[in-house]
Design a protein that fits this description.
With 141 residues, the chain is of the alpha/beta class. It contains five helices and five strands; from the N terminus they run H-E-H-E-H-E-H-E-H-E. Helix 3 links the parallel strand 2 and strand 3. Helix 2 runs parallel beside helix 3. The N and C termini lie far apart (62 Å). This is Sulfur reduction protein DsrE.
Amino acid sequence: MKTIFYSTVVIVMTLFTSCGSLAQNTVDTNKNNYVVLTKKVPQLEPIILTAEALKEEDGSNFGQFEVIICGKEIGDITDSSKMNGFIVRAENVGVKLVACGFSLNKFKVDTTKVPDEMKTVENGILYNLQLQKKGYNSLSL
């Protein structure tokens, strides 16, 4: 009898722990969330301008805005003269910059030189599709 009781307690606790971690990964679908996939660092200029305009337009409905950088020019993200201004502007607007790990590996980019402010994901295309499944509005450039 004690075994059944303890087993039930363990199962219930496992279920509640699992549900709690799932809730942390959810996106507020009542807000407008955006993801842009780009292959060129200079495209960050119009992308950030767009994020600024959408933030103003959406007001309190503005959610998350992520920009995934991938492709053969991914190495440009390690050039501080190209990236620093974009990083500051992106942070001010609440835009998250994301590097595609697959592209970093394929084009042999030194990952230690990726700016600390950027998140790296294993596969940028997969990440983009996962965000779309969560309801993000998506654009690829």
